[in-house]
Amino acid sequence: MSEQYVITGMSCAACSARVERVVKKLAGVESCAVSLLTNSMTVEGNADSQSIIAAVEKAGYGAKLKTEDPKPESKSESESEILADHETPVLKKRLIASIAFLIILMYFSMGHMLNLPLPKFFAGNHAAVGLAQMILAAIIMIINQKFFTSGFSSLLHLAPNMDTLVAMGSFASFAWSVYLLFTIAGNNSYMPDFYFESAGMILTLITVGKMLEARSKGRTTDALKSLMKLAPKTAVILRNNREITVPIDQVKRGDTFIVKPGENIPVDGVILEGSSAVNESALTGESIPVDKIPGDQVSAATINQAGFIKCEATRVGQDTTLSQIIKMVSDAAATKAPVSKVADKVCGIFVPSVIAIAIITIIAWLLLGKNFGEALSYGIAVLVISCPCALGLATPVAIMVGNGVGAKNGILFKTAASLENAGKIQIAALDKTGTITSGEPKVTDLIPSSGISELELISNAYSLEKMSEHPLAKAITEFAAKYENLTSEHVADFRALPGNGLSAIVDGEKILLGGSVKFINSEITLDDEAKNISEKLASEGKTPLLFARDHKLLGIIAVADVIKPDSANAIRKMQDMNIKVVMLTGDNERTAQAIADEAGVNEIIAGVLPDGKEQVIKNLQDNGKFRVAMIGDGINDAPALTRADTGIAIGAGTDVALDAADVVLMKSNLTDAAAAIKLSRATLRNIHENLFWAFIYNVIGIPLAAGLWGLKLDPMFGAAAMSLSSFCVVTNALRLNLLSGKLK
């Protein structure tokens, strides 16, 4: 069982690591993932929710269940509220107030160096100057008291976080300066080096970084927030033959609702009356409107652009496509990618290690002969330059942005792991029917016999095939509908001969036949040319259908399951990414080879029975040597999708296939499979860049602050560097948004 919680009080990656650690220790918890980005926690297992909440609160944080609200719009609003950027406005106010007092503090502490005049009362009165600095620094500390309440509270719970480092650094500067102030009481003969300005500057600079980080983090959830805003609030339904507007939560399955031109479709449904062009870009990313007629499906949050339509509600509330997408993207953000494990382990011990290094630094410099003030300065610099947040944010911000970019383009990753793993595949196994091909037979060739026109051939074929319900007959009747001068004769004594073809009587006595070469040849004598043409068409993977009337061959119509327009391009893109493309099909070798030649796959595996696809995937994996993706859409693809390292389901496929897959392509375009892999690789590359920056920053920054290279780093510069480190990581992740228009 999986449950989600809202976590409050977290300020950095060390906090999320602490929460994860205490929850994982509880009996019945199988796994736990905490997202600092969305302040959420996902717990797998059968542990009692109250015991989980109690454990989190004991660790010094707040927790509550993210309960399922029965009202869909209330749920979306509450989730949107959770994702809303509440931090930035608060931090902005704190920053403005801090800067105002910091400017005055800097005037008192450094103004004399610039020969700036001080009030006469302070001239030569070092104690008064120090006292003024102390008061101003104390005001700044009160303004930013959250650092101290969070930092020292975490320290008391033996789970120090980033706020602990900031609070200790600022408080140490302040406390040492207060000590110096008391030592000169009554003695104005010398002016010691106060660190009051450092205490205030550290807090102000860290607040700058926190605000930049909060603003950037807010942008990473833009895609999810924009999806939530799409949820319609009301619907116009028909009750007792009257149109009434009701809140969206009052729409029930089976209700009839109407949508006028320009309005949003409120829930998922099927069109009963009317036709229109529907803009589905909100769900699929496809900007071209889709024509809809009675019997077609429509989805919530899409826009009816033209025409009045009357629909029956089929999915409402949390069952709508939009709600499922929101849940999928939100759940993915709450999970952890495998690549984050190293950073998580480091975050768990990072802050205690930094505190230890700071103490060792102070002791070492004292032993080397530095006075306590200088040694303390080195220790404070170590505290304020180190940044666990950069490590903790490196993976989740990239995952969130990558998921958002995917959602905008109709590519849905169910978990963070699926987003990471999609880019690692080496072999892509593609189901033929419905994935590479359209899954519906189409007329590909029209070859009339000598002396017979195309119109005559297609008119006779239409007269016969319109009586049949066979998929091949449907292909011919749909093709025939394109002819303006099409004529249809009345047929009698219609017969369907399974495995052979069709026969009927026209004009009261003339026999009209249609079917396979073998069937027609048994009724009339075919010449070699007709047999050769049929053989050639069959070798191309097409099904030749011959038509004869009154013992005379009218011609040949070839029908085939044609490849989708984007399939060849998608396969080529996968191959350009060094992925081997394998086509799986139940067709015979000759038909499969014809499709393979047109699509450009590397290898075909023909004659695969529906229950044999899973074994094929297992064979391709070759005992774990290769990472294999399965791309399919049918019920028979579900076992293979589950067996594959990454299962990618075509969005128009069955619910079973979608449930079994790791990645869902909403637009049913194979090009999106290549785009998903490209996005995954870009996201993984971005994560590696973030982790490198976060690690290298701390590896270089901490020794530099400790003075190992003979340099003395002012604590204020350390605070500035710390404030920018997380901002740089988040900003780098936001670069993934630039991919949105380059995936195709």
Describe this structure in a few short sentences.
With 744 residues, the chain is of the alpha+beta class. Helix content is 50%, strand content 19%.
Q: If you had to describe this structure to a student in words, what would you say it looks like?
A:
This protein has 744 residues and is an alpha+beta fold. 50% of the residues lie in helices and 19% in strands. The protein has 27 helices and 26 strands. The strands form five sheets. A seven-stranded mixed sheet has the order 14-26-25-24-15-22-23, with helices on both faces. A hairpin with a 3-residue loop joins strand 18 and strand 19 (510-515). Helix 7 (162-183) packs antiparallel against helix 8, helix 14 (388-408) packs parallel to helix 27 (715-734) and helix 17 packs across helix 18. The longest helix is centred in the last third of the chain and has 36 residues, at 671-706. The two termini are 38 Å apart. The model is unreliable at 68-75 (pLDDT under 50).
